[in-house]
Amino acid sequence: MFSAIARVFRTPDLRRKIWFTIGIITIYRIGAFIPAPGVDYGAVQQCLALGTTEGGLYSFVNMFSGGAMLQVSVFALGIMPYITAAIIVQLLRVVIPRFENLQREGPQGQAKLTQYTRYLTLGLATLNATTLVTMARSGALLQCDIPIIPDESLWTILLMILVMTCGVALIMWLGEQITERGVGNGMSILIFVSIAAGFPAAMGEIWTTQGWRTFAAVMVVGLFTIAAVVFVEQSQRRVPVQYAKRQIGRRTVGGTSTYIPIKVNMAGVIPVIFSSSVLMLPQVISQFNQPAPGEEPNQFIQWVQTYFQSGAHPVYMITFFLLTIFFTYFYVTITFNPNEVAENMRKFGGFIPGVRAGRPTENYLAYVISRITFPGSLYLGAVALIPLIAFVWIGASQNFPFGGTSILIMVGVGLTTVKQINAQMEQRNYEGLLR
C-alpha cells in the first residue's frame, strides 16, 4: 500500500493535483469554523457544550455541512443547497422536455443544465439562509436559551443571510476548481470531507460515554458495514450486447461484443436522503404548531411525538425502510429509460442475444431493472437502518458515524476517486494504483 502511495507522489502532474485538492479542502474546513457576522461565537460554543442538539432534528443536515451549520459559520449551509438543486434539475428532466433535450445535446447541453443548477442553488441558499437565521434568533436551531445573535437589527440579519448565501457560492466554486484542476469530482470530495470530519468526535464520544468494549464493537460493525457496502456497490448485472458488422465505405465496423452494466444499487444514496427528508416534515410541522401554555396539544402533534420524534421507535424504522424501497424504485424509473437504451442500440446495430430489437429489448431491460432493483432497495433500507439500530443498542446519536448515508457516500466517493487516480497513473506509468 505504501509503495502504491509513493508511486502516486512520484508522478509530478498527479502530485500537483493532489496537493491542490488538499489545499482546497483546507480552505473549506477553515471556513466551517469562521462565525457569520453578528454571531456570538462564545454563546454558540456554550450551547453546543450543553448537548441540547444531540440527535436533534437538524443533525442530518449538520452532517453534510461538516458541523458548520450548528457552528452558525459562513459555510453553515454547506453543500446541501447544491445537492438539492442538482436533484431537482435531474427530476425536472421528466417533466420539462427542454431539460431532456439539453441532456441529449452533449457537453453544451450539460453546461446549460449546470448553469441552471447554479442559479437554483443560489435561490435555495437564500431561502435556507433566511430559515437558518430565523431559527438561530428564536433558539430553535441549537435548542438553547442563550442568545447567539446579540444584535437583531435588520442590517445584521440581512448581512448574515448575504454572507451565508455567498458562502454557498464560494463552496460551489471550490468544488468546481477541484473538478477542473484537482483529483475526483469536487462536490463529491467536499461532501466526503464534511462527513469524515465528524468521525473523530463521534468515535471519541462513544469511547468516553460507552467504554472501550462498545467502541471496539462499533469498530467491528463499521468495518463489516464498509466491506458489505463496497461489495454491493461494485456488484452489477452485465447484460450482453452484440453489434452486427456493417460496411461503411471500404471499412467494416461492428461485430464486437460488449455489455450494459446494471448496478445493484443504481439509485445511490438519493432514496435515503428522500426518505429522511420526508420523515422530517412531520417533526417540522409539529414544531411550528406547538400549543399555547395551558392548552392541550392536538392529536396530530401527540401522534408525531409518539411515533416520529425518535428514530428508535419501530413505527419510524418500518416507515423509513418502506419509504427507502419506494424511492429507490421511483428514482431508478426516472434515471434509467429502457426505451431510450433500446432505441440507441437499434440505431447502432446492437442487440441482446436471444432478444429481438425494439419493443422486446425494451421489455427485457425493464424486467431486468425491476428484478435487480429489488435486492438493491432492500440493501439500501437495511444500511439506512444501521444508525437507528445503533441508537437503540448503544444509545448513540442519530448521526452515528457508521450510519447508512455517511458510509454510502464515503465509500462511493472513495471508490470513484481511487479509480480516477488509478486511470491517470496507468496513462503515465503503465502501472496503476490498483493491482
TrEMBL record:
Gene3D superfamilies: SecY subunit domain
Membrane topology of the entry: Multi-pass membrane protein
Protein name: Protein translocase subunit SecY
Function: The central subunit of the protein translocation channel SecYEG. Consists of two halves formed by TMs 1-5 and 6-10. These two domains form a lateral gate at the front which open onto the bilayer between TMs 2 and 7, and are clamped together by SecE at the back. The channel is closed by both a pore ring composed of hydrophobic SecY resides and a short helix (helix 2A) on the extracellular side of the membrane which forms a plug. The plug probably moves laterally to allow the channel to open. The ring and the pore may move independently.
Keyword Cell membrane found: yes
Record keywords, A-Z: Cell membrane, Membrane, Protein transport, Translocation, Transmembrane, Transmembrane helix, Transport
TM region positions: 18-36, 68-95, 116-135, 155-175, 187-208, 214-232, 253-274, 315-336, 377-394, 400-418
Gene that specifies this protein: secY
PANTHER family noted in UniProt: SECY/SEC61-ALPHA FAMILY MEMBER (PTHR10906)
Quaternary structure and interacting proteins, as annotated: Component of the Sec protein translocase complex. Heterotrimer consisting of SecY, SecE and SecG subunits. The heterotrimers can form oligomers, although 1 heterotrimer is thought to be able to translocate proteins. Interacts with the ribosome. Interacts with SecDF, and other proteins may be involved. Interacts with SecA.
Location (main, coarse): membrane
Family indicated by similarity: Belongs to the SecY/SEC61-alpha family.
Species of provenance: Nesterenkonia aerolata
InterPro entries in alphabetical order: SecY, SecY/SEC61-alpha, SecY_CS, SecY_dom_sf
Residue runs in coiled coils: none
HAMAP family listed in its UniProt record: SecY
Cell compartment(s), UniProt: Cell membrane; Membrane
